[in-house]
Write a structure and sequence with these properties.
The chain contains four helices and no strands. About 70% of the residues lie in helices and about 0% in strands.
């Protein structure tokens, strides 16, 4: 098969893509990945016995805020780079 034939075959059924398809895929991946990560963490390390007491300290929330903010930044940049023609910008 020639390259031109392959391109014509792939483009033959081209149609409009749903505007929110990327968002739904990213949300599904985020929810599934987060659920698997939490389940693996609980299965491997267990739940801390004094978690309710530790949750009242600022260091606990700082330890959640740093990776959370990095994850949000990475998600935003991934959504920008997942679209052809959109620049990553300064990030």
């Amino acid at each position: 098969m020639k390259t031109d034939d392959l391109i014509a075959l792939l483009a033959a059924r081209e149609g409009p893509v749903d505007r929110h398809a990327l968002g739904r895929r990213m949300l599904l991946a985020l929810v599934a990945g987060g659920l698997v990560a939490v389940l693996l963490t609980v299965a491997i390390f267990g739940v801390r016995g004094d978690l309710a007491q530790v949750a009242h300290t600022p260091l606990f929330w700082a330890k959640l805020a740093l990776p959370g903010s990095l994850a949000l930044l990475a998600l935003w940049l991934t959504q920008r780079l997942a679209r052809p023609g959109v620049k990553g910008g300064l990030l």
